Amino acid sequence: MNGLSLGEKLFVQGGIAQDLRSDGRKRLTYRPIYVETGVIPQANGSARVRMGGTDVIASVKAEIGRPSPLQPNKGKVSIYVDCSPTAAPVFEGRGAEELSTELSVALQRCLLGGKSGAGAGIDLSSLIVVEGKVCWDLYIDGLVVSSDGNLLDALGAAIKAALSNTGIPRVHVAAEASGEDQPELDISDEEFLQFDTSEVPVIVTLTKVGRHYIVDATLDEESEMSSALSVSINRKGLICGLTKRGGAGLDPSVVLDMISVAKHVSEQLTDRLDSEISAAEAVEEE
Amino acid sequence: MEYVSPEGLRIDGRRPMEMRKLQAEIGVVAKADGSAVFEMGNTKVIAAVYGPREVQNRSQQLNDQALVRCEYSMANFSTGDRMRKPKGDRRSTEISLVIRQTMEACILTQLMPRSQIDIYVQVLQADGGTRSACINAATLALADAGIPMRDFVTSCSAGYLNSTPLLDLNYVEDSAGGPDVTIGILPKLDKVTLLQVPSDRIICQAFFMS
Amino acid sequence: MAGGASATAPSTYSPSPNQKKKPPLFKDGDLDWVRPDGREFHQCRPAFFRTGAVNAAAGSAYAEFGNTKVIVSVFGPRESKKAMMYSDMGRLNCNVSYTTFATAVRGQVLDQKESSSMLHKALEGAIRLETFPKTTVDVFALVLESGGSDLPVVISCASLALADAGIMLYDLVTAVSVSCLGPNLVIDPISEEESYQDGSLMITCMPSRYEVTQLTITGEWSSARINEAMQLCLDACSKLGKVMRSCLKEAASASEES
After folding, report:
1. What GO terms in the biological process aspect are recorded for it (chain C) (predicted)?
2. Which residues make beta-bridge pairs with A73?
3. Alpha helices of chain A — where are they, by DSSP H?
C-alpha cells in the first residue's frame, strides 16, 4: 500500500537499527501530541488528537436507552471507528471497512475490559439511571481524518480526551414507575456529570521492525513491520487489553519483553497525555 | 413558527442578508496533495485532493482530459442525532455527483489528459448549507493542490421564509420547508455554474450571493 | 489434555447463563470449587479431531471440544478474483459463521466479522503464502454448536483443514484460551465460565517452532499473571499440537491402506 523503493526500505530499517529514525526520533520517542477538546459542539464530548501527520477526531454521544437484561445494573458503550477517504484514497467506498472494523474491535478490547467489567476504563455502573430500566448508552465514534501511522494509539488518546470532555446530563426521575412501565424522566440541560477518566488506559503500540521495536511508527515504518503489539495499560500499570497485528510469529519471551517495554513507555505517555488534556480543557474554558 | 423577528433578526441573531462566520484553513491533511477545512458557522467540512495521478481503473481513462472523481461522506457524529448510515446512500451519492460536476467545470481538465483527480469531502459537522461548504472546501483544496482552474467556485445557499429572503440558511431554517436555492458562481468570470432548487419547493425570488 | 479419544460424556443441554448463579466460592478463593463440567482448573476438555469431513472441499476438518463443535473446509488455492491486483504472494480468505442453532438463544448474533479477521490473523503467519502466488485459499469455518472457547477451536481446526488440503504450512497452528475467574486461571473455558470471566487471554501458536502468531488479552492483568497464563497456554498448545499431529498421521495411514 505504501510504495517504498528498496533504498528507502533499507534507510528506514537501518535508521531503526541505529536508534535514529528518519524523522530524528529515537526508537521509544513519540511524536509531539496535540490535543484539542470540544471540537464537535453537538456531541456530549469530543476531542481531536494530532500526532505528526496523523489526525483523528473522537466524539462521545449519550442517549437514553434500556440496559440489557443480562446486566441490569450497567449502561452500554459502543465504539465505532470510521476512516475517512480524505486520509487515503484506498479508504474510498468500502475500502476502509476492514481497517475500521479492526480498529473498532481493538479499541473495544482495549478500553471496555472483560465480560464481567473488570479492567474497563469506563465505569459502566455510573451510566445507570434506573436499574434495569433506564441507562445511558454511550456511542463513541472515532474518525480518522489524516493518517500517518499509529492510528490505534492516536484513537485511544482521542477517546480518553473526549471522555474527559464529556458531560452527561443529570437525570431526575420524576415519578417512580411500578412494574413494567418506563419511569418519567427529566433530563437537566444545566447540570452535567463529569467522567472520571483517570482509569481510562492508554494504548501503546510497539512495532517490530527487524530485531527492534519502536513506538509511534509512521506509515513508512509500519510498512516495514513484521508484527506489532498494541497494549493498553492503565495508571496502575495493569494490562487492560492486548492485540497483535502482523502475521509473523513472536517468541513468547519477546512478547513478555515487549509488554514490559510498553509498560515503561505508558508511564510517560499517560503523564504527557493528561497534561495535554488538562491544557486543552483550560484553553476551551477561556 | 417565526423565523424572522419583527426587529428583522433571525433565530441565530443574524440579519436576513448576513452570512455566518467563515473560517478556512489549508494544508490540514499531511498526506494529501491538497486539503482544506472550511467552516460556515457550525457547519464544518474537510476536503482532500489526491492527484493528478495515474488512472486507477484503466477503463475509466479519458484520453483528452483528466478524470475527476468525488466522494462525499458524513461523519457519524456530524448531525444532531447520531446516525449510522451505510456509506453511499442516495443523498451522499447525489451530493458527490453535484460536487464532481461543479468542480469538473472549473478545472482545466484538458491540460491533464489520462490522469485522475480525486476529491474527498468529509462533513464533520452539519448545520445547513453542507453542499455550499463542501464546494468551497473542495475549491480551496484544489487550489492548495496546485491544480489549474478557470476560476474559484464559491457557493452559498439562500431561502425564503416569513416573506423575507434569507442568506446562508442554518439547519433549522433549512428544514423549515420554505423554498431554498444553492448556487455556485465563478466570481471573476461572473458565471453561474451551479443552481439547485429542490423539486418540492416553489422558488420565488431568492438570488443573493455573497 | 486427554488424548484423541472422542468425548464420551453425553452432551447435556447447557442452561443459559442468566439462570445460573455465580458460585459463591469464588470470593473465598477456595480452590475446591469444581467447574460446571467437573474438570480441574488446568484441565482441558477432551479434544477430538477428524479430517476429511467435507468431500467437496480440498481439505476439511471437524473438531469437537466438549459441546463446541466446529467444521472447517478449505478450498483452493484457486485463481484470485480478476479485480484483485497482481500479487506474488497467495491470499488467504477466512470466514467464520455460526449456525442459527449454535447458541442457547436462537440466532443470537455473534460478531462473525471479528472472528473472521482473528482467524485470518492467526493463520496468515503460518502459511507459506509465497508458494501459491496469484491465487487465493478460502477457509470457511462453521460453528455447529457454540460451547465456549469457540475461536480457539476454530483456529486449531482450520490449521488442520489446511494441512489436510495440502497447503504448505510452517507448522500447525494451535490455539488455547484461559479465563480469569476471580483469583483462578481456568483453561479452555466453557460458555458459562466465559460469561462470568473477569478477563481472558488467548494464544495461538506454532508449537514446534515455539512462536506466538496471535495473542489477545481482555480484562485487567498484571505482568506476572500474563506470564503464568501464557506458560499455561503454551504448554496446552504443544500438547494439543501432538493430538492434531496424530490425527493427521492416522488419516494418512488410513488412506495408504485403502
Report:
1. nuclear mRNA surveillance; poly(A)-dependent snoRNA 3'-end processing; rRNA catabolic process; rRNA processing; seed germination; U4 snRNA 3'-end processing
2. none
3. 6-17, 97-112, 151-164, 219-222, 252-285
* pTM, entire model: 0.87
Q: DSSP string covering A41-82, please? A: TTSSEEEEEEETTEEEEEEEEEEEE---TT-TT--EEEEEEE
Residues of B with CB under 8 A from a CB of A: 28-32, 35, 42, 46-48, 50, 56, 71, 73, 75-80, 82, 84, 87-88, 118, 120-122, 124-125
Select from C137, C181, C217 the residue whose CB has the most chain A CBs within 10 Å, as the one to mutate to test that interface: C217
Query: Is it true that the peptide bond before C23 is cis, omega within 30 degrees of 0?
Result: no
Find where cell 431561502 sits: B159
> Which ipTM value was assigned to this complex?
0.85
Our count of domains for chain C comes to 1
Q: What is the pLDDT of residue C12?
A: 47
Question: Quick check: B210 pLDDT over 60?
Answer: no
Measured CA distances, A140 to A83, B20, B144, C184 (Å): 14, 29, 32, 33
* Domains of chain A listed by start with CATH number: 6-285 (3.30.230.70)
Is C7 inside any structural domain? Answer: no
Architecture of domain B22-150: 2-Layer Sandwich (3.30)
Instruction: Give the list of residues 6+ apart from residue C96 with CB closer than 8 angstroms, or none.
Output: C112, C115, C116, C119, C141, C142, C143, C151, C154
Write the pLDDT tens digit of every residue in A66-123.
887 777 788 888 899 999 999 988 888 777 888 898 899 888 888 877 666 666 677 7
CA–CA distance, C233 with C227 (Å, rounded to integer): 10
Domain positions in chain B are: 22-150
Better-scored residue on pLDDT, A209 or C80 = A209
Residue position matching grid coordinates 465480560: A115
Among all chains, which residue has been given the C-alpha cell 476529491? B119
Question: How wide is the angle at C-alpha B75 spanned by C-alphas A81 and A206, nearest 5°?
Answer: 30
A141 touches chain B (CB under 8 A): yes
In DSSP terms, which residues pair with B103 in a beta bridge? none
